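Exercise 7b. Backbone tokens:
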């Protein structure tokens, strides 16, 4: 007989027997509360039994059923777990979350559609007008650089760009995408 077995009293054995008798019902109760976390449920059951064992001398085992006490302790432990999982980082306020949810995320499908429409409209231009518009407005080359690389006067580049943009606006207008005239057009095309 070991020293631990020798020190056990009848009262301790009765406490152990009462706790063992309640394990399955306690496990079912906690599993019902924590459906998505079976390992967490087992932790709660063990913590509940540990607290019962530690507080055994203070509890009134014979006057009241221990099951209700065990269920209340387990319920409180589960509630504490849920509260801990809902914590917010320090320094974050409700306004920060509101601003994040109201900010709209651009729809990339619209950009793809716009680019396809722009490319189709650019294909309707003559090659000279398309090159001038693309290099000046899409690639950001200056008129002077383009005139030098093409070997034409700068006025010719300006003319091709002007007529190309006008034709491009007309083509986009027929597709229902052009903006009304006089709307403060800068002549720049967004890529």
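Sequence design result:
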């Amino acid at each position: 007989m070991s020293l631990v077995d020798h020190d056990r009293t009848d009262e301790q054995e009765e406490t152990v027997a009462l706790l063992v008798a309640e394990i399955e019902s306690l496990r079912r109760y906690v599993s019902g509360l924590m459906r998505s976390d079976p390992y967490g449920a087992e932790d709660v059951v063990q913590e509940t039994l540990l607290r019962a064992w530690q507080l055994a001398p203070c509890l009134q085992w014979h006057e009241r059923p221990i099951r209700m006490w065990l269920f209340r302790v387990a319920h409180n432990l589960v509630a504490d777990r849920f509260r801990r999982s809902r914590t917010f980082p320090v320094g974050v306020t409700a306004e920060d979350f509101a601003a994040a949810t109201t900010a709209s995320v651009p729809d990339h499908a619209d950009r793809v559609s716009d680019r396809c429409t722009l490319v189709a409209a650019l294909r309707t231009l003559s090659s000279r007008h398309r090159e001038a518009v693309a290099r000046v407005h899409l690639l950001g080359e200056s008129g002077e650089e383009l005139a030098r690389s093409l070997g034409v006067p700068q006025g010719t580049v300006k003319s091709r760009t002007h007529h190309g943009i006008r034709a491009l606006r007309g083509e986009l207008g027929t597709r229902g995408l052009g903006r009304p005239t006089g709307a403060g057009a800068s002549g720049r095309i967004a890529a």
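Instructor comment: The radius of gyration is 39 Å. The CA atoms of residues 13 and 110 lie 73 Å apart.
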